[in-house]
Write a structure and sequence with these properties.
Layout: E1 2-5, H1 11-21, E2 31-33, H2 43-48, E3 58-62, H3 64-68, E4 74-78, E5 89-92, H4 97-105, H5 111-115, E6 123-124
Parallel strand pairs: 1-2, 1-3, 5-6
Antiparallel strand pairs: 3-4, 4-5
Length: 129
């Protein structure tokens, strides 16, 4: 999974986010892109800069909202074009990210199933009964 940093305002918070994202035994550690030229970019601008041939089903963006919130809700961006929702976003708390990555990589679930299950504030905190 590719994690793109767009907020550089708090190094300590960024390190906490990276640690939270890399703490799972169920997924490979994420690959972080820490390029200041991405600072403050919109999702559309980040998508326009993705390397040709990116094959991940989604990317994660660490922006100001992620850095400023104690929950560290990372923005996920759908890269799958076949459903016509390329660029759709929702946020996820780090503890739920392994489940999303595993289910999407196995094609067990689709991005929209997680996005549609986000809470009213747009953050996915897990499936509720």
């Amino acid at each position: 999974m590719l994690v793109i940093r767009t907020d550089f305002s708090d190094q300590r918070a960024w390190e906490a986010v990276r640690a939270a994202l890399g703490s799972s035994d169920y997924m490979e550690p994420p690959h972080s892109k820490e390029d200041r030229s991405y600072e403050g970019l919109s999702v559309e601008d980040v998508l326009a800069r993705l390397p040709v041939g990116t094959r991940d089903p989604f990317i994660a963006v660490v922006d100001k909202t992620t850095i400023d919130s104690p929950e560290m809700p990372v923005m996920l961006v759908d890269l799958n074009e076949w459903r016509g929702q390329y660029g759709r976003t929702f946020r996820v708390v780090p503890r739920e990210l392994p489940s999303i990555e595993v289910n999407l990589s196995l094609a067990n679930m689709d991005f929209f199933e997680f996005a549609d299950s986000a809470d009213d504030d747009g953050v996915f905190r897990g499936f509720r009964d």
